[in-house]
């Protein structure tokens, strides 16, 4: 695996976890449930950013199945954010 690819994925993970932390902090301050959904959504998006490569290399699956799992995880995060915007 190329170092630039790993660095890009780690930066994406770090940024999404920082947004999730700030959203959770906002939830604690305001006690507004939608902020909790935003926080959870960004955790899923960050996990989805790194899971494809991990699944592909760790379990030896095909790239298509690893990409499908990543799409499901990221989509779950987007659904949580969508729910937070609709409340």
Concise structural overview:
91% of the residues lie in helices and 0% in strands. With 87 residues, it is an all-alpha fold. The termini are far apart.
Structural topology:
Layout: H1 3-30, H2 33-59, H3 63-86
Helix pairs in contact: 1-2, 2-3
Polypeptide structure, described:
With 87 residues, the protein is an all-alpha fold. The chain has one domain (3-86). The protein has helices at 3-30, 33-59, 63-86. α2 packs antiparallel against α3 (63-86). The longest helix has 28 residues, at 3-30.
Describe the structure using short key phrases.
single chain, 87 residues, mainly alpha, 91% helix, elongated, transmembrane, transmembrane helix
Mean pLDDT: 93
Helix percent reads over 70%
Structural class label: mainly alpha
| Proportion of residues in extended strands | under 5%
What integer value in Å does the Rg equal? 14 Å
- Please give the domain count: 1
Provide the succession of SSEs: HHH
Q: Count the DSSP helices.
A: 3
- Structural shape: elongated
What is the terminal-to-terminal distance?
Answer: 41 Å
Keywords: Membrane, Transmembrane, Transmembrane helix
InterPro entries: DUF7521
Transmembrane segments: 6-24, 36-57, 63-85
Pfam families: DUF7521
């Amino acid at each position: 695996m190329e170092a630039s690819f790993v660095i890009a994925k780690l930066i994406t993970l770090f940024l999404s976890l920082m947004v999730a932390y700030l959203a959770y902090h906002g939830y604690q301050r305001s006690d507004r449930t939608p902020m909790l959904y935003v926080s959870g959504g960004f955790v899923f998006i960050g996990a989805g950013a790194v899971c494809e490569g991990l699944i592909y290399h760790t379990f030896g699956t095909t790239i298509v199945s690893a990409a499908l799992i990543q799409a499901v995880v990221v989509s779950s995060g987007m659904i949580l954010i969508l729910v937070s915007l609709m409340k």
